[in-house]
Amino acid sequence: MDVTNFSSQPHWRHCYRNICTDNFVERKHSFPSPFTTSFKTHSRTKKITMSSEVVFNLEYLTRLEESARTLESTPQQRSEMMFKAQREVDAYLEQLSLDHPTGWVIPPKETQGQDKLVQPGQYQVQSGPNQVQSGPDRAQSGPDQVQSGPDWVQSAPDQAQSGPDRVQSGPDQVQSGPDQVQSGPDQVQSGPDQVQSGRGPHETEPLPIQENGVSIDEVLRDFSRIGNEMEREGHPGHMAYVPGNSTAPAAIGDFLAASFNPYSLNVASCRRAVKMQQMIVQWVGRLFGYPSACAGNLTSGGTVATMVAMTTARDHKVPRSKDYSRSVLYLSELTHDGVAKCLSTLGMREAVVRKVPVDDKYRMDVNILRKFIENDVQNNLLPFLVVATTGTTDVGSVDPVPAIRAVATQYNMWLHVDACYGGFFVLCNSAKHLFEGVETADSIAVDPHKGLYAPFGTGLVLVRNGTLLRNSNTRQHGNYMQDQLTNPEDWNPEDLTFEQSAHFRAPRVLLPLQLYGVATFRDALQEKLELAKYLYLRLKGQAHIQVVEPVLSTVLFRIPGVSDNTNRALLREITTDGRFFITTTTVKGVLYLRVIIFCYRTHRQDVDVFINKVKDAVVKMELPEVEFCHAG
Predict the structure, then answer these.
(1) Mean pLDDT, rounded, of the chain
(2) The whole model's pTM is what?
(3) Residue 279's CB: how many other CB atoms inside 10 A?
(4) First-to-last CA distance in the chain?
(5) What is the pLDDT of residues 97-120, one digit of tens each?
(6) CA distances from 121 to 73, 169, 186 (A)
(7) In Å, how far are 51, 202, 429, 598 from 519, measured between CA atoms?
(8) Is the distance from CB of 449 to CB of 233 less than 8 angstroms?
(9) Looking at the record, which segments are called Disordered (predicted)?
(10) d(CA 207, CA 122)
(11) Cis peptide, bond prior to residue 171, ω within 30 of zero
(12) Are 333 and 358 in contact (CB under 8 A)?
């Protein structure tokens, strides 16, 4: 069989494994046993036949290599991709403002799935696929907004764009590039193995996975549509749930982590990556007053952090599976739902869950907790875990940790603290007293993707006695790793969690802290506490509004004495133009509108706009003229 023409590739030296001797043998124009093959040398063909069944095709291997080398990008290619990606990021971030013409928190339904174009004017920003007017080396002048950058020109009013393999002109947005045409408002697209026609507001399928690739421009153009179809978590008007935020250094940290791509869970693979993670864990431990013997890990979020902690609690307090069905977990009625969810994953679906009522300050009622436990003990049940929360998601209330610790100690229970939302407010001097007793908890879960503004997917678990965490997770390596040099003294992250091939999460947390310093995060969080207090005081003075005094950065308010539907109508009126996003919650049977001020882009002027929105909405509802001022 002809396998290759060596005269066309004189630089190659081909290596083959001699199966009989298990040694590598180098050959230029001959092959070791056990191959059967032939090849051409200049004008003649030489065939070598041996007794083996293996046939090796060098020409096929060469073609595979040429294709695989496409993945090996050059510095110029990486620079071009990053530059174009940054333009898309800038276009999106430009819209995260209440003042921007398309600054919706949630885009109106009629625009979702469509590319938006802001006409030239005050902002001189056009958002949509590849219509970004920002970046290095750009120039901008006059009402026609002529801009230029590397390989890119845009001019108005006809909005002509040109760049490598790309032309865009006129209001119909005709685009052309390799294997690609896009025209008119219906956005007919054609390309390899692809035709899209009449893309409407609900046709938001991503670019399909195809046998052959497409240009970076097409990929980015498709991806950037996500900005028009999402809750914009980083928007200053996003005041629902617990909004996620991300800073530029955090994004760079993710880029570096993915580019260097170390296996960060084992000292033998990358000691420095392990040290970075341990530095973050120990720093957070010190914030809460934990001893140096604590251990922990960065996780994908608060639920996984809680699950790692609960696994350690289970192994320590309920070592026999036959006792799972009589084991009892105690929560408050405001504990995050992710805690109980973990029981199923842990194989403890049959365990008993007690939801303890909260008092008039929305804290776990410790007297009722004690009664629950006493009753369970009398019924031969096994109280093993109680969860306190420092910053409930609904209200922002903080459970009395010292009192709960005393009860847990009396009944030999594990105390876990859910600090996912509120935890990093411990940085603020005005809030430190709220975390009294947390240093005595057996474990803590906290989310850097909340209080440290890291990207989603960044949780952290801490266990006070690190040895217990290690005992629950120590990895027994397979034989394929038997040659790896290990040190029993090393505390590898893979031995402190069930995760193994995990993303290197440390840079997304560490880089912003190193660049900005802890003081910047402290000030940002303190600002949110002050803004919540400011909102409370302003709403407290409004007629028809009942407002709950905040503990952290969550404010509840409502119109008292009316139906829930009337309060939902108030919510719709506040959020109808998409500039603000808030939700309702029900606490102790009462429906409230819920505002959480947590985004680092939210400042006093944004809160003032929100307050005016509330006032105008109440006026439109034409409620009876009553002076009502109540704090509940």
Answers:
(1) 81
(2) 0.77
(3) 14
(4) 87
(5) 988 888 888 877 665 555 543 333
(6) 39, 19, 25
(7) 74, 44, 12, 17
(8) no
(9) 124-215
(10) 33
(11) no
(12) yes
